[in-house]
Specification:
It is a single chain. This protein is mainly α. The chain has 6 helices and 3 strands, in the order αβββααααα. It has helices at 5-22, 54-57, 65-80, 86-101, 106-114, 117-127, and strands at 29-33, 41-43, 49-53. Strands 1-3-2 form a 3-stranded mixed beta sheet. Helix 1 crosses helix 3 (65-80), helix 3 crosses helix 5 (106-114) and helix 4 runs antiparallel to helix 5 (106-114). The protein is globular and about 45 Å long. The protein starts with a helix and ends in an 8-residue tail after the last helix.
Protein backbone atom coordinates (compact mmCIF):
# COMPACT_ATOMS: atom_id res chain seq x y z
CA UNK A 1 0.00 0.00 0.00
CA UNK A 2 1.41 3.42 -0.90
CA UNK A 3 2.17 6.09 1.65
CA UNK A 4 0.29 9.37 1.47
CA UNK A 5 3.35 10.86 -0.23
CA UNK A 6 2.38 9.31 -3.57
CA UNK A 7 -1.22 10.56 -3.73
CA UNK A 8 -0.23 14.01 -2.45
CA UNK A 9 2.49 14.39 -5.06
CA UNK A 10 -0.04 13.33 -7.72
CA UNK A 11 -2.60 15.78 -6.28
CA UNK A 12 -0.09 18.62 -6.63
CA UNK A 13 0.57 17.55 -10.22
CA UNK A 14 -3.18 17.42 -10.96
CA UNK A 15 -3.68 20.86 -9.44
CA UNK A 16 -0.91 22.33 -11.63
CA UNK A 17 -2.27 20.65 -14.78
CA UNK A 18 -5.85 21.80 -14.16
CA UNK A 19 -4.71 25.33 -13.30
CA UNK A 20 -2.67 25.46 -16.52
CA UNK A 21 -5.62 24.19 -18.57
CA UNK A 22 -8.55 26.05 -17.01
CA UNK A 23 -7.10 28.76 -14.79
CA UNK A 24 -9.03 27.34 -11.84
CA UNK A 25 -7.91 25.75 -8.60
CA UNK A 26 -9.34 24.58 -5.30
CA UNK A 27 -7.99 23.45 -1.97
CA UNK A 28 -7.97 19.66 -1.70
CA UNK A 29 -6.82 16.90 0.62
CA UNK A 30 -6.52 13.14 0.13
CA UNK A 31 -7.80 10.36 2.34
CA UNK A 32 -7.29 6.67 1.61
CA UNK A 33 -10.11 4.47 2.89
CA UNK A 34 -11.80 1.17 2.05
CA UNK A 35 -15.39 1.30 0.80
CA UNK A 36 -17.60 -0.18 -1.94
CA UNK A 37 -15.12 -1.67 -4.45
CA UNK A 38 -17.16 -0.47 -7.45
CA UNK A 39 -16.32 3.15 -6.52
CA UNK A 40 -12.73 4.31 -7.14
CA UNK A 41 -13.09 7.61 -5.31
CA UNK A 42 -15.52 10.33 -4.31
CA UNK A 43 -15.90 13.78 -2.80
CA UNK A 44 -18.62 14.88 -0.41
CA UNK A 45 -20.53 18.07 -1.15
CA UNK A 46 -19.13 21.00 0.78
CA UNK A 47 -15.86 19.24 1.63
CA UNK A 48 -12.39 19.50 0.14
CA UNK A 49 -11.38 15.88 0.78
CA UNK A 50 -10.87 13.42 -2.07
CA UNK A 51 -11.50 9.90 -0.81
CA UNK A 52 -9.58 7.22 -2.71
CA UNK A 53 -10.80 3.65 -2.30
CA UNK A 54 -8.06 1.30 -1.06
CA UNK A 55 -9.97 -1.83 -2.15
CA UNK A 56 -9.48 -1.46 -5.94
CA UNK A 57 -6.20 0.38 -5.29
CA UNK A 58 -4.76 -2.77 -3.74
CA UNK A 59 -5.20 -4.56 -7.11
CA UNK A 60 -3.17 -2.00 -9.08
CA UNK A 61 0.39 -3.03 -9.92
CA UNK A 62 3.04 -0.88 -8.23
CA UNK A 63 4.33 0.28 -11.62
CA UNK A 64 0.91 1.82 -12.45
CA UNK A 65 0.12 3.46 -9.11
CA UNK A 66 0.98 7.02 -10.12
CA UNK A 67 -1.16 6.84 -13.27
CA UNK A 68 -4.02 5.23 -11.32
CA UNK A 69 -3.86 7.98 -8.70
CA UNK A 70 -3.71 10.62 -11.44
CA UNK A 71 -6.94 9.39 -13.07
CA UNK A 72 -8.89 9.03 -9.81
CA UNK A 73 -7.63 12.25 -8.24
CA UNK A 74 -8.09 14.28 -11.44
CA UNK A 75 -11.67 13.02 -11.77
CA UNK A 76 -12.57 13.94 -8.20
CA UNK A 77 -10.68 17.24 -8.34
CA UNK A 78 -12.78 18.30 -11.32
CA UNK A 79 -15.87 17.65 -9.17
CA UNK A 80 -14.32 19.81 -6.42
CA UNK A 81 -14.00 22.62 -8.96
CA UNK A 82 -17.77 22.51 -9.42
CA UNK A 83 -18.29 20.25 -12.44
CA UNK A 84 -21.14 18.07 -11.24
CA UNK A 85 -21.97 16.29 -14.52
CA UNK A 86 -20.36 12.83 -14.33
CA UNK A 87 -20.23 12.34 -18.10
CA UNK A 88 -18.49 15.68 -18.60
CA UNK A 89 -15.93 14.97 -15.85
CA UNK A 90 -15.13 11.58 -17.38
CA UNK A 91 -14.70 13.14 -20.83
CA UNK A 92 -12.40 15.88 -19.54
CA UNK A 93 -10.42 13.32 -17.56
CA UNK A 94 -9.87 11.23 -20.69
CA UNK A 95 -8.77 14.30 -22.68
CA UNK A 96 -6.29 15.42 -20.04
CA UNK A 97 -4.93 11.91 -19.50
CA UNK A 98 -4.39 11.45 -23.25
CA UNK A 99 -2.49 14.74 -23.44
CA UNK A 100 -0.29 13.82 -20.48
CA UNK A 101 0.30 10.07 -20.81
CA UNK A 102 -0.68 9.16 -24.38
CA UNK A 103 -3.02 6.51 -25.74
CA UNK A 104 -0.81 3.53 -24.91
CA UNK A 105 -0.75 4.21 -21.17
CA UNK A 106 -2.39 2.51 -18.23
CA UNK A 107 -4.04 5.85 -17.40
CA UNK A 108 -5.59 6.08 -20.88
CA UNK A 109 -7.00 2.54 -20.66
CA UNK A 110 -8.45 3.21 -17.20
CA UNK A 111 -10.00 6.52 -18.34
CA UNK A 112 -11.37 4.93 -21.49
CA UNK A 113 -13.06 2.21 -19.41
CA UNK A 114 -14.71 4.90 -17.28
CA UNK A 115 -15.87 7.24 -20.05
CA UNK A 116 -19.42 7.07 -21.40
CA UNK A 117 -19.53 4.63 -24.36
CA UNK A 118 -21.12 7.31 -26.56
CA UNK A 119 -18.17 9.61 -25.92
CA UNK A 120 -15.70 6.81 -26.64
CA UNK A 121 -17.44 6.18 -29.97
CA UNK A 122 -17.37 9.90 -30.85
CA UNK A 123 -13.68 10.18 -29.97
CA UNK A 124 -12.89 7.12 -32.08
CA UNK A 125 -14.91 8.48 -35.03
CA UNK A 126 -12.72 11.61 -35.11
CA UNK A 127 -9.61 9.44 -35.42
CA UNK A 128 -11.09 7.70 -38.44
CA UNK A 129 -11.75 11.02 -40.18
CA UNK A 130 -15.52 10.52 -40.18
CA UNK A 131 -16.77 12.31 -37.08
CA UNK A 132 -20.26 11.49 -35.94
CA UNK A 133 -22.15 14.66 -35.17
CA UNK A 134 -25.35 13.06 -33.92
CA UNK A 135 -26.44 9.98 -32.01
Amino acid sequence: MPTLETPYSVLNEVMRDVLRRSGKSAKAEIELAPFNPSILGFVRAGQDVIYVNTVPLSQVPQSNLSEYFYVVILHEYLHLLGIADEREVRRITLEMVNEKFGENSFAHNLSLNLVDPRDAMLIQSWKLGRPHTYM
